[in-house]
Amino acid sequence: MVTGGMTQSPDRAPLRTLARRSEADIVAGLRTALATSPASVEAVTRRGLELIRKAKADGERETLVAQLMNRYRLSTEEGVVLMCLAEALLRVPDNATANALIRDKIAGRHWAEGDDDDSPLVVALSARGLSLGSATLMLDAMGSKANPLSLLKSMIRRSGEPVIRQAALAAMKLLGQQFVMGETIDAAVKRADKEKSELASFDMLGEAARTAEDATRYYDSYANAIARIGKGAKPGDPHANHGISIKLSALHPRYEYLQAARVRDELIPRVIELAKAARTVNIPLMIDAEESDRLEPHMDVFAALIDAGIADGWTGLGIVIQAYQKRAPAVIDWLAERARARGVKLSMRLVKGAYWDTEIKRAQTLGLSDFPVFTAKLHTDLNYMRCAQLLRDCQDCIYPAFASHNAMTLAFVAELFAGADYELQRLHGMGEGAHDALVALFPPPRPVRVYAPVGTHRDLLAYLVRRLLENGANSSFVHQFSDPDVSAEQLAVDPRSVASPAVPVIATGLGLFDPVRRNSRGYDLGDPGVSEALVAAIGAARRSDMVAAPIVGGVARDGKAEPVRNPATGAVVGRVIEADAATVADAVTAARAAHDNWSLAGGAFRAERLERAADLLEEHDALFLGLAIDEAGKTLVDAVAEVREAVDFLRYYAAQARADFTYPVALPGPTGERNELMLEGKGVFVCISPWNFPLAIFLGQVSAALAAGNAVLAKPAEQTPLIAHAAIELLLEAGIPGDVLAYLPGRGESVGAALTSHDDIIGVAFTGSTEVARMINRSLAGRDGPIATLIAETGGANAMIVDSTALPEQVARDAVASAFQSAGQRCSALRLLCVQEDVAGTMIEMVAGAMAELNIGDPSVLSTDVGPIIDEEARANIAAYVAEARAAGRVIAEAGRTNMPAGGHFVPPVLIRLDHVTDLKREIFGPVLHVATWKGGELDALIDAINASGYGLTLGVHTRIDGVAAHIAARAAVGNVYVNRNQIGAIVGSQPFGGRGLSGTGPKAGGPHYLHRFAEEKSISTDITAAGGNAALMAG
After folding, report:
1. Is 394 one of the catalytic residues?
2. What is the Cα–Cα distance from 316 to 280, expressed in whole angstroms?
3. How far is 324 from 623, CA to CA, in rounded Å?
4. Are residues 452 and 588 in the same domain?
5. Which of 992, 954, 999 is nearest to 792 (CA)?
6. 766-791, pLDDT tens digit by residue?
7. b/e map of 985-1010 (b: 16 or more CB within 10 Å)?
């Protein structure tokens, strides 16, 4: 059975339902609750107008952010390019690549026009500094009327890219001074101490940990920061001192729900030690908010801190809550309940939220029914107000801090908490105007606290771009406030007085492909309620008596049954009966006789049945998920993706059948003549599917052939007959005629050979090895029947090209996923990592570190990342190859977290060094990644070497130079190119999948041309004047 995760906490059950609740329903409840708020709309509007007027009147202290947003729309591509270019140049070690990056980011940009005569020096340096390498050039720029793009191009012509590289450091230093409190914690504390009117909550800049070394480094950084901040702390109230904010994902490389045991055993003790240290020196410690799928682990860690007594008699322990999350009010209720039960007072920072775009994409990608966050900014504002209202009622157990740059939000808080104890917070370098005005007009009870990042320029980009996008979007209050054309009266609007927009305004995961087809339903496995219910459903649906018998004419055939074994444990999970020669012959005869009626039934008729099959598959998905785990050795994550892809194939090809096979297409011609083109089924198709996608590819082939009007003889892989048998039963239940569809399990050399050599077979759809594809091709060519169609998708020695502009964290994440997910048993899996030698050491070290965090073992355990090899023969072949590489001293790293059951077929992931890309002579179909380096300036030679292998399936590219990505994509002889992401998991209808050369014939599965390869074309031309003239022409 599937196991793992953590036991559901009963007190969180109501909270979990909110994540997928209708936004309109939630907002209606918010408006009802806010209608009785003691902070009336009139009072808040009046206070807000006064605040905004003063802030605008004090505009001479306009910040760099406001100046930049006046000059550019920072939410656009051009606005971010200024920041990304400078930051990227600091990371690129070789001059040639740096020069290429500069040229790439400047060409074709449409920069905003602007008069720079009155621009302050700091803006000139930020907006133009990237193009200026000396004080003289900077002064020239300030007196110029040209726009920044013209200046940038001019400076390159005058001084060349080397000047730009030098200017980048100066530009990032200026940005750092504005947005970062200091490069070291010592410098940051000294700078903060000079601001007598404000306190700070220091944040050590950096991304989430990818390796154990990353996590240790971040831990040490936090510990050192706590000690340094604590030197100036006073006894008594911790909120009178500077504090620290910590990011849990920086303290553990696998901070996620599916790794709950490791979070409990490894992360929580670390956080407790940091919290104890903060308590010892009496500085407030705040746990920063992260993505919504980490909310439950966040609550687990925070609950552990409470249970450990950190907050007993001390109010400095805090957590950040994001108001754009639908669950935010419920989290506050939970927090208050825990605090009261323990008899402690906690602190909480309320923010709007910083990962909105990520949350939207994740929900769409997972195929979820709704979003965990609000899609309309107005609704986030309303939820923030509701959360503040709840906090007003929790003053006995929660010390509230309100982080916002929105003057109306500040006015609401000031009105609501008049006479109460609370704290206001803002980001360093942002929001000074509104906060200064509020302090002057409506003094809060405590000093404003500044969220103060600490770190080097190299660590600035992710934080800076996120802040600028968040505050520079056209709908942002900060952006509108900085616009001189927007009056105070226009800004002073209480969200409660604004009507809600129609929702959803963004397509949900289920509605992503509306109205053509419904997207497949997914599962948020980071939600304990969802994952535990799914695990229970899989257990209930599991059948131990399954027999995959041949099916002809809708009736199962008898025969000798052989065991089917679980590749992870060796346990018997069912039995299979091989189709004999007579059964194969009967199936061909029945299919040939049934084909014509099936083809004549039309595309709409066939589409209805395939769509019904898709619905049945989702209805009974627990059965198929269990089979994918038990029979094919897939993890639950991979099993869910497999079932979803199968559903998508069914609906996608059904939609195409309805559109292209229902009615003929009218073609142009002379008057008096009707010309039409129609599509029909070819005849009897054989579909031979692989074991690595035993449901998705199986149903993809079968549904395409059926949709086009063909009769189908389906032969599953020898290792995975059970899941294919269940799929055939489902298609028959959906209304596919038994004579049109036959199921013929068996060995390739017997059943497969008999099918592909039969004269009545008109085509074969095959996915598997190149060698077998060649055998099928020869078999088809040797027959006396009609020339048959072969649609083959085979393997590939897939590469990923990484240049020196790539981010190591992203490369490590995507390379490890591409190479080792599904134990590397994907046609698209990464086999060869090609890293520019200038950055190879860092990149390879991080990939190896990320590999070390993988869990290898039983796929029925939720925490498993890498499951078994499909059978002993495959395992032995891979193991022998790895042993040979180890003996030659070429093994760089191997994954070390293994918990492999006895009787299973396992090979831990391994990283092997090659001297040159041409040293990889063949595909190793398993968790084996090779790495080779290449010299800058020899990119074309690298592409040529990859092309020379003859394989052409997938290619990954990691670069921040758009021109390089486009150049590689154009030159690479592959079917699928993936840029700055992993190279597995093609989405039906979005990323058609298939290769060329030794990797397949095309057309691409899940693409617009695939279905037509299963069809015959028929052209009909009719002279409509033969009956006495063209009435339509004469009438006109």
Report:
1. no
2. 11
3. 36
4. no
5. 999
6. 999 999 999 999 999 999 889 999 99
7. bbbbbeebbbbbbbbbbbbbbbbeeb
- Would residue 709 count as lying in a domain? yes
Instruction: Provide CB contacts within 8 A for 556, sequence distance 6+.
Output: 549, 550
Query: Contact 4/258 with Cβ under 8 angstroms?
Result: yes
Look at residue 522 and tell me if it is in a domain: no
| Catalytic residue (choose from 387, 394, 687, 827) | 827
| Amino acid identity, position 155 | M
DSSP assignment letter at 993: B
- Report the 10 Å Cβ neighbour count for 837: 15
Residues 419, 352 share a domain: yes
- Residues 764 and 821 placed together within one structural domain of the fold: no
CA 130 to chain centre: 32
Same domain for 390 and 305, yes or no, is yes
pLDDT digits (tens, 9 = 90+) for 146-185: 444 444 455 555 455 566 666 655 666 666 677 789 989 9
How many CB atoms within 10 Å of residue 175? 25
Q: Which residue among 734, 768, 794 closes a domain? A: 794
Contact 300, 331 (CB under 8 A): no
- What is the domain-level CATH number for residue 733? 3.40.605.10
Contact 326, 29 (CB under 8 A): no
Residue 407 is part of a domain; what is its CATH number?
3.20.20.220
DSSP letter string over 911-956? EEE-SSGGG--S---SSEEEEEEE-TT-HHHHHHHHHHTSEESEEE
Are 754 and 646 found together in one domain? yes
pLDDT single digits (tens) 508-559: 999 999 999 999 999 999 999 899 999 999 999 998 899 999 999 999 999 9
Phi, psi of 938 (to 5 degrees): -115, 35
Q: Provide the b/e sequence for 252-290 (b: ≥16 CB within 10 Å).
A: bbbbbbbbbebbeebbbebbbebbebbbebbbbbbbbbb
Whether residues 789 and 860 share a domain: the answer is no
> Is 173 a member of any domain?
yes
Asked if residue 1028 belongs to a domain, the reply is no
CA distance 349 to 344: 17
How many Å apart are CA 381 and CA 360, to the nearest integer?
Answer: 18
Same domain, 449 and 481: yes
How many structural domains compose the chain?
A: 4
How many CB atoms within 10 Å of residue 676? 15
Distance CA(743)–CA(712), nearest Å, equals 9
- Bond into 1003 cis (ω within 30): yes
Model pTM?
A: 0.92
Range of the domain at 705: 542-794
Apex 540 CA angle, 537 and 546, nearest 5: 120
CB 952 within 8 A of CB 999: yes
Q: Which two tokens stand for residue 172?
A: 């990032």
Has 827 been annotated as catalytic?
yes
Q: What angle do CA 325, 987, 525 make, to 5 degrees?
A: 40
For residues 859 and 989, membership in a common domain is answered with yes
SS3 state of residue 726: helix
Peptide bond into 501 cis (omega under 30): no
Q: Which of 87, 296, 415, 793 is flagged as catalytic?
A: 793
| Residue 118 pLDDT > 70 | no
- Asked if 84 and 461 touch (Cβ cutoff 8 Å), the reply is yes
Determine which of 164-173, 298-307, 941-950, 1009-1018 has the lowest per-residue pLDDT on average. 164-173
**Residues facing residue 264 across a β-bridge:** none
